Fold this sequence. Notes:
49% of the residues lie in helices and 15% in strands. By secondary structure, it is α/β, with parallel strands linked by helices. The N and C termini lie far apart (82 Å).
Amino acid sequence: MAATVTFDESALSQLAATADRATRRNLIANLRRMADSLEDTVGTIHRYGHIDLEKAMIKVGLDLGIFKVLAGADGAMTADEMAQKTGADPQLMKRILRYYNTINVAREVGPHRYEATNITRNLTEEVCVAAMGHYYDLVAKQYHATPDFLKQNGYKNPTDETNTALQLGWNTRKPPFELMLELPGAMEHFHVYMTLRRQVALSWLAVYPVEEETAALSDSDSDSDSDKERPLYVNVGGGSGVQCAQFRDRYPHIPGRVILQDLPETVAQALPTPGVENMAHDFFEPQPVRGAKFYFMRGVPHNHPPQRVKLLFERIREAMVEDSVLLVDETVLPDTGVSFIAASIDLTMLGAFASMERTEAEWRALGESAGLELVRKYEYNPLEHETVMDFRLPRRLNI
């Protein structure tokens, strides 16, 4: 007879309710590691063998609106009630909900009766719906093509952004963003998903000493016309302009121009923020805004292999003056203990762009290859290793 093991779920729930985000993430990682240590071969076969089924059934739930119905219910619902609300066949709904109970997307509370879980509610959030659309509708083909792509390329680390797993999976020569423009809903899904990285509370603005670096500019005694006309903040590859809007809103008193730069089709749809200039620019071409205090880019270099990042950095270095700062807001991988999310995104970048997430040493070497010095880094989201790096022109040696 199998031994019965009791588990104090209430104590764990109480701990989770009072723990901060980092503690919860660490708790999850350790519990999963413990569960994996108990798994037998049969469990491993079915866990990985059915991994695509899990994502597919989440997509089914999103298409039917199952998660919104269940999360919005006042208590548990029967499978028949769920079928009536969503328009699905009752027998099909029973089978779907039975599966959801096994992956904690719904909780079974009686025969064919289910209630929402934390995951159910997560899956109703707009950013989560968009992210699932991005991964299922676009990235899934890239993941499936990755083994063949790496084999065909002799298991070399990819550095050619014109030859990627994504292109193999989609049978195209188009780069990712060009492909997304052709796929219905793809760009919308991507931009909504990226709002996860635009929260002010989890932002470089929370840690970088902007006031200190611009003290001379914001001093009333130096509030001259030249200060007002000097470019203060240039967001290179800034997309819709959210970062520019946040910067201008947080530092309205610092004189200088705030400029958003991106490709023409992106700038055409950017936010019309008062005090922000929207400028069409290809960042691999010479930088037209010279002598800015801050050149800023977020999540741009990790979309490109080293030789292209070097060119991007060189273009900005050519426009910098002595007190200019290049702020690079990216993931900086630790030498050990890289998180699941960061490691997964690193391999996603490999397949989509032949690019990568990088360690501090790798970022430093990239800067030096373009004639820039990494002066300091400021980590603001330790869970995902998100950091803003301060690059400057090399300091002259005193002789």
